[in-house]
Amino acid sequence: NFFVFEAILVPFEITACNVIIHYWSAVVPAGGIIAIVIVLYALINLLAVKWYGETEFWAALGKVLLIVGLILFTFITMLGGNPLGDRFGFRYWNNPGSFKPLYYEGSLGRWLGFLQCLVQASFTIAGPDYVSMAAGEAENPRVAMPKAYNAVFYRLTTFFILGALCVGINVPYDDPELTAAFANDEPGAAASPYVVAMNRLRIRVLPSIVNALVLASAFSAGNSYVYCASRSLFGLALEGKAPRFLTRTNRQGVPYYCVLVVLLICLLAFLQVSNGSATVLAWFVNLVTPSQLINFAVMCGTFLCWLKACKAQGLDRDRLPYKSRFQPFAAWYGLIGCTVMAFVGGYTVFLPGYWDTPSFIFSYFMIALCPILFVGWKVIKRTRLRKPHEVDLKGEVEEIDEYTRTFVPQPYKNVADKWFNIIFGG
Fold it and tell me: Which residue numbers delimit the Amino acid permease/ SLC12A domain (predicted)?
């Protein structure tokens, strides 16, 4: 499931790249842009993978600077710092309002609008879990990983909340350019709410700069998903949960068959050649969202089982390097919330007059597939669920303890390295 949702995010980002590029010109057809992006991903992940870490670091820094810049842009322009001298503040929260009715008027419509936003927000929750993929290669993980998790969680939460707030400040929900972009699948769909606001305020040049940065961000995200998805598939192959030929690597250690499988999945991006970009993006969102929610639900369920094993074996959590708060209530909240939202995600198809077969399939395919894979694996491999007292909680603990005792932190290379670690290292 983790591999599937990572792999599907690649054609999603490719589709997004195509939409953004068409903001400037529609001369190059969608199929051409998709092919170019896929070829670039292939070259980067098969031939230039040694530069992956360095490029992604700078790409991540660029994303942070972009969102900080957009937040500052919102603050300055809402106070009148724009060519029109328009001090609009929170005007659009009153006219047309902060809640857009969806499908129906009145309270029901506003509730469905909020629910749709909640579904879209569920799509964006992935991110903190990716930190765990670096645990095996991190220096002094018992110290570094808790800092990394906290830093990623709080910073993402802050950026998401401020970003959503800024969008509501910048653009009314009935803005003609924005609604036309999504309703008619016009090239203007590449214009994010920020770009729409810049156009409305007659700010020149900056919209193209923002779109260029967003394009770089989308391309970088797709490249990251190619890397992560291929490594996830490689890990499955090493564990015997995927065909053995996928374990083959080249001289640089790149699992090229795994990369090729992910690139084949990228071909789904060509769906937008015969369907609108907005439609295809919605399909990918519908497919990925329940998959992500299932992942988080499984993580919460796994934690609860681990907690039960700790209690059965007398392991005191206070003696561990890190102890999360509000447990087990937080885990139960996450498990129930993610499970409910996974089923709610495709609710629109059940409204009278809104049935759409592709949307139904994309929304509930993973929900049906995951239990089948889980039960099928248990039956075929004849594995069983372990009882709390049977779970191995101390495997390789001695090696980790020894590593922690003998670890010598490396000095900072320079002042810039020190401040980068303070700002971005948690």
Answer: 1-387
pLDDT score of 49 = 57
CA 220 – CA 217 distance, rounded (Å): 5
Is 402 a domain residue?
Answer: no
Is residue 401 in a domain?
no
- Domain carrying residue 264: 1-271
The CA-atom distances, in angstroms, between 424 and each of 221, 413, 417 are: 19, 16, 10
- Among 247, 271, 295, the domain-final residue is 271
CA 424 to chain centre: 19
Preceding peptide of 176 cis, ω within 30° = no
Domain shared by 291 and 259, yes or no: no
Q: Are residues 178 and 291 in the same domain?
A: no
∠ Cα 16 19 25 (to 5°): 145
Query: What sign does the CA torsion over 248, 250, 253, 257 have?
Result: negative
Retrieve residue 7's tokens. Answer: 């792999």
Q: 245 and 297, same structural domain?
A: no
Q: In which residue are the tokens 């729409």 written? A: 196
Which structure tokens are listed for 25?
A: 């010109």
Whether the predicted model's global pTM rises above the 0.90 cut: no
Q: Would you say residue 190 has pLDDT above 50?
A: no
Q: Exposure pattern of 396-414 as b/e (b: 16+ CB <10 Å)?
A: eeeeeeeeeeeeeeeeeee
Provide the domain count of the chain.
2
Confidence check: pLDDT of 305 > 50: yes
Give the 3-state secondary structure of residue 421. helix
Return the structure tokens found at 84. 């029109």
Residue 221 placed within a domain: yes
What digits encode the pLDDT tens for the residues 27-55?
A: 778 788 888 888 888 888 777 656 666 66
Question: In this structure, are 57 and 165 located in the same domain?
Answer: yes
Q: 382 and 239 in one domain?
A: no
38 and 292 Cβ atoms separated by less than 8 Å: no
400 falls within a domain: no
Residue 241 has pLDDT above 70, yes or no: yes
